[in-house]
Amino acid sequence: MSRVKRSGMPLVTTLLATALLFTSGYSAAALAPNYQNLRDLDAMLDYMHEHPEVAARLDSIDMRDYVIHYDDNCRIEFMREARITPPGWAGPEAPLVFKTDSCSSQRATHSQLH
Q: Do strands 74-80 and 96-101 pair parallel, antiparallel, or not at all (unpaired)?
């Protein structure tokens, strides 16, 4: 039988180091807040590029609640895309997707008149 030579590091320490190495991938996969905010803002700006009438009447963009405020009292809300992630997932958040426009019927009527 051959003998396995140990490097002098206790077996428990070796196992812990190996476990840390394999689990560190989850925490490294998360986006830093500034990059996540930029991704979210890009999604909201993309919506306004597709709907220039909203951009023309923009009041504010609420990054905390993912809402575009326009035309004094109208709101376009976004939400995280639904997706299934493995347990312990710490990767980037799901992308923002359109949820609702509180004034979509008014906007449609206004667009048809002009």
A: antiparallel
